[in-house]
Design a protein that fits this description.
- The complex is a heterotetramer of chains A (about 400), B (about 250), C (about 290) and D (about 325).
- Chain A is of the alpha/beta class.
- Chain A is about 40% helix and about 20% strand.
- In chain A, the strands form 2 sheets. In chain A, strands 6, 7, 8, 9, 10, 11, 12, 13 and 14 form a 9-stranded mixed sheet that branches. A 5-stranded parallel sheet of chain A has the order 2-1-3-4-5, sandwiched between helices.
- Chain B is of the alpha/beta class.
- Chain B folds into 2 domains: about 170 residues, Rossmann fold (3-Layer(aba) Sandwich); about 70 residues, no CATH class.
- Chain B contains 9 helices and 10 strands.
- In chain B, the strands form 2 sheets. Chain B has a 6-stranded mixed sheet, sandwiched between helices. Chain B has a 4-stranded antiparallel sheet with strand order 2-1-4-5, with helices on one face.
- Chain C is mostly helical.
- Chain C has one domain: ABC transporter involved in vitamin B12 uptake, BtuC (Orthogonal Bundle).
- In chain C, helix 1 crosses helix 6 and helix 2 runs antiparallel to helix 3.
- By secondary structure, chain D is mainly α.
- Chain D has a single domain, classed as ABC transporter involved in vitamin B12 uptake, BtuC (Orthogonal Bundle).
- Chain D contains 15 helices and no strands.
- In chain D, helix 2 runs antiparallel to helix 8 and helix 12 packs parallel to helix 15.
- The chains are: A alpha/beta (about 400), B alpha/beta (about 250), C mainly alpha (about 290), D mainly alpha (about 325).
- Chains in contact: A-C, A-D, B-D, C-D.
- At the B-D interface, helix 2, helix 3 and helix 4 of B face helix 1, helix 8, helix 9 and helix 10 of D.
Chain lengths: ~400, ~250, ~290, ~325
């Protein structure tokens, strides 16, 4: 009896307060909080939370509630259920998250059917944004770094030949395609392509690297998922003496992910990467961002490109909430984001109104030792890079 | 004279360097009550395994009623009428006694492949299984799981399964081993009650049982036939006494 | 154009990988052969041991070698406690109950490590003399691989001596072949199980630490390499130390060679190879023939 | 002397296939779920598919005693059959699609069963696992047909019976469709296990040597059982692909095969309803624990498995059975 009364009272209270109080916007977050992606989920999650914490003023008078849901694995099926339930049970206004491309691909029909804005904060397979009109990406496409790197390798690093090693899943193949396309367009030659196992488990890279070493290329372009794969790549590169053999290890910034870089130590020195973010970028917004991060999560921790994907994604969501005054309509939200500009820790970014993908700077960096730690020194910069895959309508990026 | 029920010719089987069966020439006539004795490791169980097709001979032949069955698969030999019991119980431990016998009867009458009718609908199979249990005085335990039965009762189920196959040749590998003496008469009675035309080969160490049962005895030593004869001849054979009977004594 | 140097580098890399497989798997093989226990938590012990070694070096000032000893001892002791308290209850139980129990245990180990330490990879920094290259005359090669091969040879030698020349080893061999007989000879089976289990887990811990350079070290380690360990055990034959050794080397070298020369096939080769080997020799290459 | 059929044991055997009133409960609950939790039908559909998949495993593992870690090979075969046919525009009708999925999966089961089922124990376990892994790798390499790692998405599945659309967001059609298919398959499996054939499978599980000795064609029976089980797993995979309009490599993966094994053993194998109990217990726990403690649910799940294995023996239904049976003297082995 009493329980009923309390419930009724609470309901009544909720009604009246919601009237008086701030409009609540529910954001459903689909991330792999357990399993092999747990580490990445934590980075994106912290990036989002940090933006909300640092920009509490910008959120007002609205209230953003994050409803977090574990998608467990890169398999797709669990992500799909999670997104479906976020939409039908929790009635979220906006969706966010996606570490793994297969999860974003599996979720696409649900996102389309649910008609809610969905902000991709990491998954990098180029054509994903074509799969649902409600996808907007604040992270990157594999083509951003891969395409830029192909050109830079030939022009800036004077490479004539390259071997590409990649993890055998869509982002890896994307990365290979992007690098090859631009590298060969400016006269380089990819002399070997080595699929190096799946994304599910870190393989022993020694046989693959031995093969690459035997081919004696000028550069060895490697794409592997950030994290443990990347750490193993750098270790193997050093241990096999490839640097002494005159082969430069290059790749997108996944291989020098900030969270792994210091543990790689001296082995990482000399790596040359193309990426849109690393924690050493000398940009005022980034200085503040890194400082706030270390204050919030501990001096031993560092943000990285995944964290920035979450941070910028939340900035985009807050922008939408403000523009629409807390009443989220997916089509209006898309309008609000098309052409949106933001001063991100990675430099100026915007959302391409045509592709709903991000436009940003790419930085060519070299890892050097500085003050006893590995430091990423920017040695080149390309402004306003778009996803070349969709720009040039290559393969599945051409759309339907 | 017609061909014997079961016959082996120069049967050999080697396990690596070990000759478990050496040049065995053996005949089991229709209606025979034949015993196979010999010290441990003489190759008696291997011989049964050769006869039933569990083990393939290295050389030599096995004939049933004159037909060469050396290459015939185990299941086919059962269909031809060769059944056995095992030295150590090999039963369906988590099934009931009735189900144990049901499985064997169902195989014999060809009911087992039936997939779309409930097992209980085959009343004939259930009836026959129950009757068999009745004759072995097992019907009181019909609903119990094998794993709940004392070992001696399990031995009887071993026998029941073999009988359910209505064999022409019955190979009994130490049927009374582990059975309390108070119950062993049930097994002996059951063997005595078998149709006369079945050929029975019994392996046992229990000389009382062997001499009570057998009309003919074969002695095996080190994988080879050492002697064959009537119980009286075997009992009188000095060499047999020397290598076997004298050493182990009775029981 | 496969030169001698290529073959040498392939063999060195493959044998080194095989050594890691061997060191982790040998305990699994012996526990499965001896106790008939399907211990899917074995990879969990390897992971725990690896963590103990990594943390000892990072936070408690251990050197590499003393950390390895520390990891071995800690893991062996912890597993002995688990064996007495929990595993022993399931000896002789349905193997599916054993599977359920050990999978549950792996989940708990993974979740606990994730909660207490975090989901990320634990870097295990090798001492400087083990990094870089070493000159072997005909070939420059990764120093650590060479050292690992040496360690592996020492371990297999010691294990072989232990199995063949000590009383305990003889007891274990007897119990693997015929447990009932061993029991009737007055061997204390329960004690033997505990010692073997603890030792096998300790070996797994060593493997976790020594192999971290190749396989990394994170909570998922407990499951993601389990299939490889099981393949080695199945191919080598249950309870056979030398069998596991040869199987690990075989799998290690073939896996390495196939990945190097035909990377397009992905991991398919190793599975195909295992299928063929097991169809050819169902009891494993060195297992006892079924009777 | 009493008439044989009057004996309680004979009567029990003759009547054990009769339906008991409580057997209606799972189906009533499943229908009730439809009305009570319209927002959870996505989860409900996944749950029902898992029950069907676990049921297929129960047939081989629980009844014939084949311990396999490769059951997802057939789930995947069925799923890819539906997926590829739909994506290529060859076949989109759901019910006939399921029949095709069953046939393809059965063919895979027959082929692999003929080769693998001569082995047992750890060897068989590893062989089934490696066969599945090979198929997964093949699906990854046959990128042009299977979509590789991406899988095949947005499958055009025709409306059920020409009328009922599969709505991705509110899967009411999917739920009822899966429920009906599960029911049909369940009736099939139930009939099978109570038949003389099912009885002989139990015999093989309990003592293969003895089955040889009673003249049973053991390999043939096992292969047949394996093939039928593969067909049902193929239906589970096919219907999963239809319900989600999606297939990917995860349908063929070790995760799926291991999870279904855990589910069945947790519920109790060789008991038909173990698949139901196990799937509900596992999925509800992992689903809701994962919501409340996204980073710690695995700990609770692991603890549950350990406790069940240590104290229940043969799963949750093992407890029920042990409570139901009068205490028997413990068998010594």
């Amino acid at each position: 009896m009493t329980r009923w009364m309390i419930a009724a009272a609470a309901a009544a209270l909720a009604l009246t307060t919601s009237w008086a109080q701030a409009q609540e916007v529910k954001v459903g977050v689909a991330l792999p909080y357990t399993g092999i992606g747990a580490e990445f989920a934590q980075l994106v999650d912290r990036g989002m939370e940090l933006y909300l914490k640092l920009n509490a003023d910008k959120v007002k008078p609205y209230k953003i509630t994050l409803i977090k849901r574990d998608v467990k694995d890169p398999g797709g099926a669990n992500a799909k259920i999670a997104v479906q339930e976020l939409l039908t049970q929790d009635n979220v206004d906006i969706l966010a998250g996606w570490i793994y491309s297969p999860n974003a691909i599996a979720s696409a029909p649900i996102v389309s059917a649910g008609k809610k804005l969905a902000v991709i904060m990491n998954a990098g397979t180029a054509h994903i944004t074509n799969m649902s009109p409600y996808y907007v990406r604040t992270s990157f496409s594999m083509w951003h770094a891969g395409y830029a790197m192909g050109e830079a390798a030939a022009k800036l690093l004077n490479a004539k030949t390259a071997v590409v090693g990649y993890t055998d899943f869509p982002p890896g193949k994307d990365s290979l395609a992007a690098f090859k396309k631009s590298f060969e367009a400016v006269g380089g030659k990819v002399i070997d392509e080595i699929p190096m196992g799946g994304a599910g488990a870190v393989p022993d890279f020694t046989p693959f690297f031995q093969r690459a070493k035997d081919k004696k290329p000028d550069v060895f372009f490697v794409f592997v998922p950030a994290g443990d794969h990347a750490a193993a790549v750098v270790k193997t590169y050093a241990a096999l003496g490839m640097r002494d053999a005159g082969i430069k290890l290059i790749g997108p910034g996944d291989i020098t992910q900030d969270t792994k870089l210091q543990a790689m130590g001296a082995a990482a020195v000399g790596l040359i990467t193309m990426h849109h973010y690393h924690a050493d970028l000398d940009i005022p917004e980034n200085k503040r961002f890194v400082e706030a991060w270390k204050k919030e999560y501990g001096a031993a921790t560092t943000p990285d490109f995944m964290a920035v994907g979450g941070y910028d994604g939340m900035a985009a969501i807050v922008h939408v909430v403000q523009t629409l005054r807390g009443k989220i309509d997916a089509d209006k939200a898309l309008e609000a984001l098309k052409g949106w500009k933001f001063a991100s820790p990675r430099g100026p970014i915007s959302i391409d109104p045509v592709t709903r993908d991000i436009v940003m700077n790419e930085y060519l960096s070299e890892a050097v030792m500085k003050d006893g730690r590995v430091f990423q020194k920017v040695i080149g910069k390309i402004d306003g890079v778009k996803d070349a895959c969709k720009e040039q309508k290559i393969g599945p990026c051409a759309g339907k | 004279m017609s061909a014997p029920l079961l016959e082996t010719r120069a049967l050999c089987r080697n396990f690596g360097a070990l000759a478990a069966a050496r040049d065995i020439d053996f005949r089991l006539e229709a209606g025979a009550r034949h015993a196979l004795i010999g010290p441990n490791g003489a190759g008696k169980t291997t011989f049964v395994n050769l006869l039933t097709g569990v083990v393939q001979p290295t050389t030599g032949a096995i004939l049933m009623k004159g037909r060469d069955i050396t290459g015939v698969a185990q299941a086919e030999r059962v269909k031809l009428g060769i059944a056995r019991t095992f030295q150590i119980n090999r039963l369906f431990r988590r099934l009931s006694v009735l189900e144990n016998v049901y499985i064997a009867v169902a195989e014999r009458v060809g009911a087992a492949p039936s997939m779309f009718r409930p097992a209980g609908v085959r009343r004939d199979v259930v009836d026959e299984s129950m009757q068999l249990l009745e004759t072995l005085k097992l019907s009181g335990d019909a609903a119990r799981r094998i794993s709940e039965l004392p070992y001696g009762r399990q031995r009887l189920v071993e026998l029941a399964i073999a009988l359910a196959l209505r064999p022409e040749v019955l190979l009994l590998d130490e049927p009374a081993a582990g059975v309390p003496s108070a119950e062993s008469h049930i097994i002996l009675d059951a063997i005595d009650g078998l149709p006369r035309d079945i050929g029975v080969l019994i392996i046992d160490h229990d000389m009382d049982l062997v001499f009570r049962f057998a009309e003919r005895i074969t002695v095996m030593v080190s994988g080879a036939v050492f002697a064959t004869g009537s119980p009286r001849e075997i009992a009188a054979d000095a060499e047999v006494r020397a290598v076997y009977l004298g050493r182990t004594g009775h029981g | 154009m496969i030169a001698g140097v290529d073959i040498a580098s392939m063999l060195l890399g493959g044998v080194a990988a095989g050594m890691v497989l061997f060191i982790v798997s040998v305990g699994l093989s012996v526990t499965m052969g001896l106790m008939g226990f399907v211990n899917l938590a074995h990879g969990g012990f390897a992971m725990l041991g690896g963590y103990a070694i990594a943390l000892a070096m990072k936070h408690w000032g251990f050197g590499f070698v003393s950390a390895l000893v520390f990891g071995f001892v800690v893991t062996a002791a912890a597993s002995a406690v688990l064996e007495r308290l929990l595993y022993a209850r399931l000896y002789g139980a349905d193997e599916l109950d054993q599977v359920l129990f050990t999978i549950g245990l792996v989940f708990m180990i993974i979740a606990s490590v994730t909660l207490l330490i975090g989901p990320e990879n634990q870097p295990l920094a090798l001492p400087s003399f083990l990094r870089g290259q070493i000159n072997l005359g005909i070939i420059q090669y990764r120093a650590y691989s060479v050292v690992l091969i040496a360690i592996g040879i020492v371990i297999v030698g010691a294990l072989w001596l232990g199995f063949e020349r000590t009383r305990l080893g003889a007891q274990i061999r007897a119990a693997v072949d015929n447990r009932r007989m061993a029991e009737s000879l007055g061997i204390n089976i329960a004690r033997l199980f505990t010692i073997t289990f603890a030792f096998g887990s300790g070996m797994a811990a060593l493997g976790g630490g020594l192999g971290a350079e190749f396989l990394g070290l994170d909570p998922q380690y407990a499951l993601k390499y389990l299939v490889y360990f099981l393949i080695v055990v199945a191919v080598g034959g249950l309870g056979r130390v030398t069998g596991v050794f040869y199987a690990a080397l075989l799998i290690g070298v073939l896996d390495f060679a196939l990945k190097k020369y035909v990377p397009q096939g992905g991991t398919a080769f190793i599975y195909a190879l295992t299928i063929l080997l097991l169809l050819w020799r169902p009891q494993g290459l060195f297992g006892a023939k079924a009777t | 002397m009493t008439e044989p059929l009057d004996h309680p044991a004979a009567r029990a055997l003759a009547e054990r296939h009769r339906l008991r009133p409580w057997e209606a409960i799972p189906w009533l609950l499943a229908l009730g779920f439809y009305f009570a939790f319209p927002k959870h039908l996505g989860f409900g559909t996944e749950l029902l598919v898992t029950v069907l998949f676990a049921l297929s495993l129960d047939l081989v593992l629980g009844y014939a005693g084949i311990v396999t870690l490769g059951q997802a090979a057939f789930f995947g075969a069925g799923a890819y059959t539906v997926g590829i046919l739909a994506k290529q525009g060859i076949w989109t009708e759901p019910i006939t699609g399921l029949i095709l999925a069953a046939l393809v999966a059965a063919a895979v089961g027959l082929g692999s069963g003929l080769v693998l089922l001569r082995t047992q124990g750890l060897t068989l376990l590893m062989l089934t696992l490696c066969t599945m892994a090979l198929l997964e790798e093949a699906a990854n390499l046959a990128h042009d047909y299977t979509g590789g790692f991406d899988g095949l998405d947005s499958l055009p599945i025709a409306p059920l019976l020409g009328r009922f659309e599969f709505n991705p967001l509110y899967p009411t059609t999917q739920y009822l469709y899966v429920l009906v298919v599960l029911f049909v398959c369940f009736v099939f499996v139930r009939t099978l296990v109570y038949s003389p054939f099912g009885q002989s499978l139990r015999g093989i599980r309990e003592n293969m040597l003895r089955m040889h000795a009673v003249g049973a064609p053991v390999r043939g029976r096992l292969v047949l059982c394996y093939t039928l089980s593969a067909a049902i797993a193929g239906i589970a995979g096919g219907i999963w692909a239809q319900a989600n309009a999606y297939v990917n490599l995860g349908t063929l993966g070790l995760d799926r095969a291991a999870t279904v094994l855990i589910i069945l053993v947790l519920g109790g194998h060789g008991r038909l309803y173990g698949a139901f109990i196990g799937a509900v217990a596992y999925m509800v726990l992992s689903h809701f624990l994962a919501k409340i403690y996204p980073t710690a649910w695995q700990l609770g799940l692991g603890l549950l498995l350990v406790v069940i294995a240590l104290f229940a023996r043969n799963g949750i239904l093992g407890i029920v059975a042990a409570l139901g049976r009068r205490p028997a003297p413990r068998a010594t082995s």
